[in-house]
Write a structure and sequence with these properties.
This protein has six helices and 28 strands. By secondary structure, the protein is α/β, with parallel strands linked by helices. A hairpin with a 2-residue loop joins strand 20 and strand 21. The structure holds adenosine monophosphate (AMP) and magnesium ion.
């Protein structure tokens, strides 16, 4: 049995970006830019008005006599281009976003002017540059708009679109295949027969994968039968970069994932980690020519599935997706209650976090067993109680890995 630290290193050192591809902006949310991008056009592309108003020459408004009367030459909605140059004591009506004509250097809002005959009367003087958005004042032509390795979020995609890009070069999303084992499983919606339980891991994994940036290419349910499992692993390995199995990886008579993985040609990197839950976690390398397909054998208990996904699978996916920041977010927190455990395995303890002055307070939830699903939705983070600890009194500082289970960060 290896330590948690060793296991997470054995996993993460095998994660690398899987290649690059151009994707349309609509498909790029949650992807990581594989290239620096520079603006092809300045933003805004031309000098334009920030308000609905009248474009004027500010110098014309610095006059002693009142009222300030200018000749109204034309009206310019957004999207049109007025070609003439504004000369002495002339104004053009402009809408927000419309080009400010050459010669004009300020716009007075409609609220502060009044049209009269073929002219417009200004209620006040204007300063040079007032309400004018200069070409390139947001982004200069040629400026870097996206750094390499940026996780693309809605504002990044907006910036790319504003600069006229339809596509962006990103690291390819890892392709994931899921295999759900367990003869005891029946599907939600079916009648629950004696001895059966509803399969919750399929739903849990589909949802977690959606939040991870990876692409789920297949999810199959497999009987606890060696032949079917070998066949399912081989089939999944045809297209997947990563295979996740659920259940069947412990020491029971029907725990056949380990034998099946090896029969399918995979090499074990580790099996069993000194942690609770998810002690029987397994990790394999299935080589196909030069390429490795990575198999995570997750234990079947839903708590173990969720926790091992956050601690091992998600960081692996993130690093394969090109992210430099792949580990769970970690805070130091003070335990509000004592915690007792056996020595030997690191415990991931589901906690609720609260802020008190400068500290985070971590309160363990009452049910922690790996089969307990109900407390997962209340969990803010996982407190890491070291393997060698047995009793941690209230007030002890512990590391907590934040989980996003209360949020809904869906990446499509
Ligand atoms: P296993 O790792 O296959 O020995 O399963 C450990 C525990 O998790 C058993 O109580 C299983 O019934 C349960 N389990 C396995 N697969 C699932 C699943 N897909 N959904 C819910 N519980 C499961
Ligand atoms: Mg099983």
């Amino acid at each position: 049995m290896i330590s948690y630290e060793k296991a997470r290193n054995l996993v993460i050192e095998r994660a690398y970006p899987l290649g690059k591809e151009k994707v349309e902006l609509e498909a790029a949310l949650g992807c990581v830019a594989a290239q620096e991008v520079r603006a092809k056009v300045p933003l805004p592309p031309f000098k334009n008005s920030a308000v609905d108003g009248y474009a004027v020459r500010s110098a014309d408004t610095v006059i002693v006599e009142q009222p300030i009367r200018l000749k109204l030459l034309a009206e310019q909605p957004a999207g049109e281009y007025f070609r003439k140059r504004l000369s002495h004591r002339q104004a053009v009506k402009v809408m927000t976003g419309a080009p400010v004509p050459a010669g004009a250097d300020a716009v007075i809002p409609v609220e502060e002017a009044e049209e009269e005959g073929d002219g417009v009367i200004l209620k006040r003087q204007v300063r040079p540059g007032e309400n004018v958005r200069e070409a390139g004042e947001d982004v200069a032509k040629g400026a870097v708009i996206i750094e390499r390795e940026t996780l693309l979020t809605p504002p990044h995609l907006g910036l790319l679109a504003a600069c006229g890009f339809r596509e962006v070069l990103v690291y390819r999303r890892p392709r994931l295949a899921v295999l759900i084992t367990g003869n005891e499983l029946c599907q939600p919606g079916e009648r629950l027969r004696p001895g059966k339980i509803y399969d919750s891991n399929s739903t849990i994994l589909q949802a977690l994968i959606k939040t991870s940036g990876a692409e789920l290419i297949s999810l199959r349910r497999v009987k606890d039968d060696l032949k079917s499992m070998v066949a399912a692993i081989k089939l999944a390995s045809a297209r997947a970069d990563i295979i996740i199995t659920s259940g069947g990886v412990s020491v029971g008579d029907y725990d056949l994932v380990k034998t099946a993985a090896v029969k399918a040609g995979a090499q074990e990197i580790f099996w069993k980690v000194a942690q609770k839950p998810a002690k029987p976690l397994a990790f394999y390398d299935l080589k196909k020519g030069k390429k490795s397909i990575w198999i995570f054998g997750l234990p079947g208990n839903p708590g173990a599935v969720m926790i091992s996904f956050e601690e091992y699978v998600r960081p692996f996916i993130k690093k394969c997706s090109g992210l430099k920041d792949f580990w769970p977010q970690e805070v130091e927190a003070v335990l509000t209650a004592s915690y007792r455990k056996k020595k030997g395995r690191l415990n991931f303890v589901r906690v609720v976090l609260a802020r008190k002055e400068n500290d985070w307070l971590a309160t363990p939830l009452s049910r922690q067993e790996s089969g307990i699903i109900s407390s997962l939705a209340q969990t803010d983070g996982l407190a890491l109680i070291p393997a060698e600890a047995d009793l941690l009194p209230a007030g002890t500082k512990v590391k907590v890995h934040i989980v996003g289970w209360k949020k809904n960060e869906v990446k499509i």
